[in-house]
Amino acid sequence: MDSLIQTINKLQDVFAVIGEHKIDLPQIVVVGSQSSGKSSVLESLVGRSFLPRGTGIVTRAPLILQMIRYSKEDRDAMLKITKNANIKSWAIFLHKPDTIYHNFDEVRYEIERQTDLMAGVNKGITHESIVLKVFTHLYDLTFVDLPGITKVPVGDQPEDIDEQIQELILKYVQQPNSIILAVVTANTDPSTSESLKIARKMDPKGERTIAVVTKLDLIDKGTIQDTTDLLCGHKIPVKLGIIGVVNRSQKDINDNKSMNETIKSEKDFLRSNYPDIYKKHGNKILAKTLQDILIKHIKKTYPILYKNLQDTKTKLENELKTLQTPDSKVSFILGLLKDIYKSYCDTIMGNRRDVSDKLVMGGAKIAQIINAEYLEKINNIDPLHDLTDEQIGIILLNTAGITSSSFVNEKALEIMISKQLNNLIGPSMSIVDFVRVEMLKIFDCIDENILEILKRFPRINSDVRNVLHKMLDDKLTNIKEFIESYIETYQTCLNTTNPKFLFQLVKSSTEMQESFITFYMSNPIGDSIKSNRDSEGEEKDEENLKIQHFKQMLSGLNDLDYTIGTSKQVKIHRCLTQCYFDFIREIILDFVPKRIYHKMVKLILDDFEHHLDEFVFTPYVINRSFDEVLVEEDGIIEDRNNVEKMLDAVNKALKNMIDIQCY
Questions:
Q1: Among residues 347, 417, 568, 638, which is most buried (max CB within 10 A)?
Q2: Would you call 563 helix, strand, or coil by DSSP?
Q3: How many CB atoms lie within 10 A of CB 505?
Q4: Which residues pair with 28 in a beta bridge?
Q5: pLDDT averaged over the chain?
Q6: What pLDDT, in 10s, does the model give residues 129-173?
Q7: Partners of 213 in the beta sheet?
Q8: If residue 69 lies in a helix (H) or strand (E), which one and from where to where?
Q9: Which strands sit side by side in the sheet containing 63-69, from one edge to the other?
Q10: pTM of the model
């Protein structure tokens, strides 16, 4: 049975083959500035010198380094190929699985060659990873080595090289399942460390960060106490630990100092300079600590990783269904059109099972548009907009002509009301347009799987949308003409004796009542009202009498001319216009939404399936164009292959995950 770390190695192999993916694997990500000693740390852990060296950016691609404690089977497989029993450790690249490297200088050359192949021969970087397996007798461990952080381009490096590197590093360290190994130099202020800045940004609490302090041998003797405080965790707030190491110097590298000699020198140095804490530091302690941390982290993140893989598998299977080539083209298109109709209707009627909790959509959006856009706009219209008292007086004089104006000038009232009701037409026309646009947008909210299928077949997608467009355009013209005609009816045919209007006068027009009643208190009818108030005092009878007086007044009685002045008439006609506008507004507010629902929304839903059959499917049958309309959009075949590869990778990963359950 493989170790936990080897199981994760297999997952890395699986997903490295397919390139970009969103699977968050538990792994150690190595972050450090250029010349921070990052490469030396990794080489000390591996026990071999194999990483490219030089000035500027050396690591230009993510290097997934898998240390594998080899088994007897692994060694036998190596011997079968190399026939060399003296080999103690060897390496294999995932991109060259049949080539075994036991000369680690050749490993370095292959890393450089593959990097140039992927990132170009200049100093640019790539997100594509190199997977290197190092078989050793030491331990199982895995890292992701990233390019060193730099701020200033050097030589022929791109001007935005710092941004490119930051983007690549953040891609790995922002994943919750990643452990951040931040490399910090002892001879610089840790508060300025770029690796720690990135770690703090992505892991503010330091819960998944471990710091490695390098170059302990390069500090002044007088700062050893400060360094001790640093190693004891007094300066860097990370919870997975801080470990100091002493790696090979450039002179050691030039002199080919062995790793065993380096480990011995490191131990002697730490014992001499940090006698109280030396047992907690050094490359051996680092290796064991990282191994323990990674194993615990794998166990901790297993449930999340497993669920992520299961969810990804389900999503990919559904996606693959939408990308499959249909067996029966006729049945496929007929079924697709029925699915389109059903999903469109369900979206408008609120019958979708996958109801969104993020945004209002479908029929609810139509209702929201009517309530928010139309009702609010109509209710905010001033009944007397652009109608002043002076204008009312002029209209009264001009409509009276050479005769004296009656108490209520019906011609003037009709002109004023017609003018004010015009203000209802514009918003009523606009709301029809808004609903039409929304019904087109709703098509883009139907089942995602159906939309994905339509993306594959541009001809069907275009034909279906054209049918919906034409249906809505036809309904648009008819409904707008009817609504405009409906409002014009109330402009030209006033009914001032309507009981509902009269009742609204009684309830709403206090100013007009006072003017009217003040005059009437001096005549028999007025006495009747007063007597009625004194004797009966019943509100209902009083309202009925008022209605009778309004009815007589509005029926054209002319016997009040000598008592009502122009100013009174202006007030009366202003109030009548306002009250009649409010009366008609209520009717329009009730009518227009109903008309839209009935003559646009409902009719579209009733006729959509029939139109799809008549104007899409039937022409395909007549013209025998099924092969033509099922021509896939460019790139669909590639997408299908990519989904199949990703699904295969996820299935392999899930199979490997079974091993983790045994621990």
A1: 417
A2: coil
A3: 23
A4: 143, 179
A5: 81
A6: 999 999 998 888 889 999 888 877 766 667 788 888 999 999 999
A7: 184, 244
A8: strand 63-69
A9: 96-101, 90-93, 130-136, 63-69, 141-145, 27-31, 178-185, 209-214, 242-244
A10: 0.57
